């Protein structure tokens, strides 16, 4: 059975956000990379701005004014980027409890996504061939005739009885009662 989550935005932890929105595990490392690049650009912007001011050999008031301007307008962007980067980084130990590397994880997710859905499903469900696809009794609700379809080309499932749908990773999570990261690990071979 699928876990049920209740929408209480103020109570959501990073962990439950990832359970609800498992795709974030892929997006977060990309966002972290984007933030790092944006921070480097900001730092270059600040240093070239200040170099430009010092090169003018302006009076000390102008230099002070330029530094204040940089703090006010450029450094505040930098601080916001830093805060966001920190916020994103706090997801990493949850996404990948072992030593984390971004490339590794997205590679593993990619491998998991391509694990044939019928192979993981047949360990728990009795599959009935249906053209190039398969049918089975839906694990998400009680039924007498199979309405869960496994689509071998898209590697996804859909239940015409309860409308549950998803990919091979979410099916693995449901069949084994495990989280996203464990399902990704399980689908590595
Ligand atoms: Zn169903």
What does this structure look like?
The structure is a single chain. The chain has 189 residues and is an alpha+beta fold. It folds into two domains: 11-95; 110-186, DNA Primase, Chain A (Alpha-Beta Complex). It contains eight helices and five strands, in the order ααααααβββββαα. The protein has a five-stranded antiparallel sheet with strand order 1-2-3-4-5. The longest helix is centred in the N-terminal third of the chain and has 32 residues, at 24-55. It binds zinc ion (ZN). Residues 138, 140-141, 147-148, 159, 161-162, 164 line the site of zinc ion. The site of zinc ion (ZN) has 9 residues, from loops.
Write the layout of secondary structure elements.
Elements: H1 14-20, H2 24-55, H3 60-89, H4 92-95, H5 102-113, H6 117-121, E1 128-130, E2 133-136, E3 148-151, E4 156-159, E5 165-167, H7 168-176, H8 180-186
Antiparallel strand pairs: 1-2, 2-3, 3-4, 4-5
Helix pairs in contact: 2-3, 2-5, 5-8, 7-8
Determine the fraction of residues in helical runs and give it as a percent range: 55-70%
**Category from helices, strands and their pairing:** alpha+beta
Question: Quick check: average pLDDT?
Answer: 84
Strand content: 5-15%
Give the domain tally. 2
List how many beta strands DSSP finds: 5
For the biggest β-sheet, the strand order reads 1-2-3-4-5
């Amino acid at each position: 059975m699928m876990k049920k989550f209740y929408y209480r935005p103020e109570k959501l932890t990073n962990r439950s956000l990832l359970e609800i929105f498992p795709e974030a595990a892929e997006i977060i490392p990309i966002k972290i990379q984007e933030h790092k690049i944006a921070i480097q650009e900001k730092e270059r912007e600040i240093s070239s701005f200040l170099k430009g001011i010092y090169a003018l050999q302006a009076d000390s008031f102008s230099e002070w004014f330029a530094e204040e301007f940089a703090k006010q307008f450029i450094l505040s962007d930098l601080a916001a980027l830093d805060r966001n980067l920190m916020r994103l980084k706090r997801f990493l130990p949850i996404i990948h409890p072992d030593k984390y590397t971004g490339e590794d994880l997205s590679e593993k997710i990619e491998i998991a996504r391509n694990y044939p859905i019928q192979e993981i499903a047949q360990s728990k469900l009795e599959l009935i061939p249906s053209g190039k696809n398969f049918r089975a009794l839906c694990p998400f609700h009680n039924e007498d005739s199979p309405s869960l379809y496994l689509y071998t080309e898209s590697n996804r499932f859909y239940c015409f009885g309860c409308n549950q749908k998803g990919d091979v990773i979410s099916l693995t999570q449901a069949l084994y009662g495990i989280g996203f990261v464990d399902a990704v690990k399980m689908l590595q071979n």
